[in-house]
Design brief:
Layout lengths: L13 E6 L9 H14 L4 E12 L2 E11 L4
Antiparallel strand pairs: 1-3, 2-3
Length: 75
């Protein structure tokens, strides 16, 4: 896979956001990273453009989430 297979199209990217389920264990960053990795693997052949981690403070404590921006050959 090379960058030539994924032409850069201005302002075009697919994305998804993922977090652990709310409640006990929601702050578990290693578990979140594993969940995101499994989701990315399930997408097939994609080019990851960016990953952004956010953190929300809740009554249960920290609740991190990750937004993944990616391109497919068709996007």
């Amino acid at each position: 896979m090379s960058d030539d297979d994924y032409p850069i199209v201005p302002w075009t990217a697919n994305h998804f956001s993922q977090a652990n389920p709310a409640g006990p264990g929601q702050e578990d960053v290693p578990a979140l990273l594993r969940r995101v990795a499994e989701t990315i693997a399930g997408l097939g052949e994609v080019r990851i453009v960016d990953l952004v981690m956010h953190n929300e403070a809740t009554a249960y404590g920290d609740w991190p989430s990750i937004v993944v921006y990616y391109q497919t050959k068709d996007s």
